[in-house]
Amino acid sequence: MVGDMAAQFGKETSTGGAFVRQPNAFTDRVTADGSSGRRPEAGRYRLIACLACPWAHRAIIVRGLLGLDGVISLGLVDPIRDDRGWRFTLAEDGRDPVLGIEYLAQAYRATDPDFGGRVTVPAIVDVETGKVVTNDYPQITLDFSTEWAEFHKPDAPDLYPADRRAEIDALIEPIFHNVNNGVYKAGFATSQEAYEAAFTALFAELDTLSTRLETSRYLLGDRITEVDIRLFTTLVRFDAVYHGHFKCNRQKLAEMPTLWAYARDLFQTPGFGETVNFDHIKRHYYATHDQINPTRIVPLGPDESVWQEPHGRG
């Protein structure tokens, strides 16, 4: 049965107390052949992201690794939302300097005046029209790798190699359901049953991944691919927020030796660690999920310096 606690996102909570993430509202694409009606174009599109958000974080990492920094501009929102959603209060005058808006919700409603869902990041916005092209976070990074190839830097890694896509996709699915989204299903559950189911699936998947990584530096051997990035953005937040705030407390990441070493290996790889902002991460989770943390007290720990300790892999 659903407990007495109100849901953090009521529209996304089932009658059984389980968190059910809303579908992505905008799913247009920018495609290399123009079949979508949009082609890659330097300066035309802007990635709106939050450094606290794991879904947006993966887009920031992929954009940087591929060398798309100078092609797709980046706008950052404040990690603290208010009742109107994601705010551009990090900018000097409280407006995104390219789009000229104060809230990402303004771009959403410019695209669909009847939009009534939760405004999410990442989002790709057309600079010329001010409208959202897509907030389809699973597809955004895949398109960066495939549809934007003409703009990749010369030494860009192939994060979604054609000959390994079936393997990557097969790993992505359980990692999404049980880990990436699994921590949210545990944290936002409003029934004991829903929480325990999410908790059990989460740690079962982490155990499976740990076993796999005992004999492989990355999830697909000796090269970083899309699926490593997707797992990393959850792991890097694990001890700081998911372990305590979301009650994912069977173990800390730092108490799972293989996964902890793997995560540090990625953190210390150029393009990863420098994109992590623990201050934004902690302030977002602890200060915006008021149904879970009504005092909004943000913890001081854990010690960030441990991420630089030798990982012993590779």
Write structural notes for this entry.
With 314 residues, this protein is mostly helical. The protein has a domain of 145 residues: Up-down Bundle (Glutathione S-transferase Yfyf (Class Pi), Chain A, domain 2), CATH 1.20.1050.10. Helix content is 36%, strand content 5%. It is built from 9 helices and 4 strands. A 4-stranded mixed β-sheet has the order 2-1-3-4. Helix 1 runs parallel beside helix 3, helix 1 packs across helix 7 and helix 4 packs parallel to helix 7. It starts with 44 loop residues before the first strand and ends in a 26-residue tail after the last helix. The relative contact order is 0.14. The N terminus is likely disordered. It holds the Pfam family GST_C_2. It comes from Actinokineospora auranticolor. GO terms for molecular function: glutathione transferase activity. This is Putative glutathione S-transferase. Keywords: Transferase.
SSE layout and pairing:
Elements (H helix, E strand, L loop, with lengths): L44 E5 L4 H12 L7 E4 L27 H8 L11 E4 L5 E3 L2 H10 L18 H16 L1 H6 L4 H22 L12 H17 L14 H11 L10 H11 L26
Parallel strand pairs: 1-2
Antiparallel strand pairs: 1-3, 3-4
Helix pairs in contact: 1-3, 1-7, 4-6, 4-7, 6-8, 7-8
